[in-house]
Each structure stands twice: as C-alpha cells, then as structure tokens.
Design a protein that fits this description.
By secondary structure, the protein is mainly α. The chain contains two helices and no strands. It is a single-pass membrane protein.
C-alpha cells in the first residue's frame, strides 16, 4: 500500500480547513439576527419600570 507524501497530507489539510471555514461561515450568515428589535424591546421595558413616587 503506497504512502502519501507530506505535501499531499498538507494539501489535504488545507482542503479540509477551507471546507470547515466555509461551512462555518455559511451557517453563521444564514440566520438573521434581530438585534435592533431586541434593543427596542429592552428600552421599552426599562421605561415602564420607572417608579413615580
């Protein structure tokens, strides 16, 4: 059974690393993050908690 050369192992490592990075990037950017709506809701909640003595 022939063995792989070190350069071939390195190219295989680079290939799988690029595939992993692309997969993670696609998963990260495929979901919309509604941060603005969450911030608006939190400010509305804080306004309603102000007590008027």
């Amino acid at each position: 059974m022939p063995q792989m050369s070190p350069l071939m192992w390195f190219s295989l490592f680079i290939l799988f690393s690029i595939a992993l990075i692309l997969f993670n990037q696609m998963n990260f950017f495929s979901f919309k993050q509604n941060l603005i709506k969450k911030l608006e809701k939190s400010t509305n909640n804080s306004k309603s908690l102000i007590w008027k003595w």
